[in-house]
Amino acid sequence: MTPEIRALFPVSERLIYFNHAAISPPPIPTIRAVEAQLRDVHENGSLNFRSWLAVKEEARKLLASLLGARPEQIAFVRNTSDALSTVANGLSWRAGDNIVTFSREFPSNIYPWLRVRDAFGVKVRMCEERDGRIELSELEALIDDRTRIVAISHVQYASGFRTDLTRLGQAARRHDALFVVDTIQALGVVPTDVEAEFIDVAAGASHKWLLAPEGVGYLYLSDRARKRIQPTLVGWTSVPDPDDYLNFEQGWNRGTLAWETGTGPAALLHGFKASLELLHQHGVQNIANYLEDLTDYLCERLAGKNYEVLSSRAKGEKSAIVCIRHRGDLSAMALYHRLNTRKIVIAPRVDRLRIAPHFYNTTNEVDQLIEALP
């Protein structure tokens, strides 16, 4: 971390901000990009509409590069929930099919599957958490030849556990199931490769580790997933040539582009592009290395306090999220309020205090957090 990076985040002058697993403060270039697009509309109306579309395509290419995907395999949607719901709704279900997932997934990755359970008689099988971890052998044992979907987060929001996607993806592929991954808690700070990790569906959004404003979600579909999932929410931009207004027999656009229904949040996409450029400039692997060192330091400092680290810190399982619990009677919510009064921002999740730094945070800020913890 350099002073130049830190200067891009004015929040660091006001707060110790360790809540990037919830909402990230966008850096200065991102805010300027959003303001510039809005100013353009204010001053010129639709005159530069084509240039806004070009920025959207540049953002798509940058996002595709982070995922290891082709640009046409990615659609911009409203949020992670929309992306996962359109997958659940776009499959043909039969009674007796099953979906395998984890009992402590974020609700975005649970409710879409419960809806198809109730509508079509599909079974939803869940493995349980074991000491802050997912025992992959336990989850793999739930997969069989009637499994249609294996759904998991790359990094768990309430424990920080990082899943071995390659292993689980291979298990799903052996049974011809689609491997669905919620990447929102990993993309931007954990290297991701959808091909190498056998990911068929990736869903996420802009406002956490990708350092952009809320309002831009994304959906990736592999070629095999695209053959099985039909677009169920479509609109005028779901076709190859939206400007051919009266040609209603075009068919759907190629790849995942058919999932884009209409006008999108142009200003937010300008900001998203700027944030993606910053992450590419510094390199996801470099950011991951820095955050591993920083969170290792955090856990070392916590060893002298009356707190239990619930997050696995094993190689291949640790992430930039560290969840802790007081060994006495102080609740996560009480600690959250106490730290807020000291201008330290973290998050209570379930019965845990979640600490989630980004690459502009420092060891000095970690030290201040440790001193503020009772």
Keywords:
single chain; 374 residues; alpha/beta; 12 helices; 37% helix; 16% strand; globular
Question: In words, what does this structure look like?
Answer:
The protein is of the alpha/beta class. Helices cover about 35% and strands about 15% of the residues. The chain has helices at about 5, 30-45, 50-65, 80-90, 110-120, 135-140, 165-175, 225-230, 265-280, 285-300, 330-340, 365-370; strands at about 15, 75, 100, 125, 130, 135, 145-155, 180, 200-205, 215-220, 305-310, 320-325, 345, 345-350, 350-355. A seven-stranded mixed β-sheet has the order 2-10-9-8-7-3-4, with helices on both faces. Helix 2 (about 30-45) packs antiparallel against helix 9 and helix 3 (about 50-65) runs parallel beside helix 9 (about 265-280). The longest helix is centred in the first third of the chain and has 19 residues, at about 50-65.
Counting DSSP H or I runs of 4 or more residues, the number of helices is 12
Report the major sheet: 7 strands, mixed
Beta strands, count? 15
In spatial order, strands of the major sheet run 2-10-9-8-7-3-4
Summarize model confidence as the mean pLDDT.
97
Give the H and E element order. HEHHEHEHEEEHEHEEEHHHEEHEEEH
Low-pLDDT residue spans? none
Considering DSSP H and I runs of 4 or more, what fraction of the residues is helical? Answer: 25-40%
What is the radius of gyration computed over CA atoms, rounded to a whole number of angstroms? 21 Å
Strand portion, in percent? 15-25%
User: What sort of overall outline do the alpha carbons produce when their principal axes are compared?
Assistant: globular
Instruction: Give the distance, in angstroms, between the N- and C-terminal Cα atoms.
Output: 28 Å
From the helix content, strand content and strand pairing, which structural class follows? Answer: alpha/beta
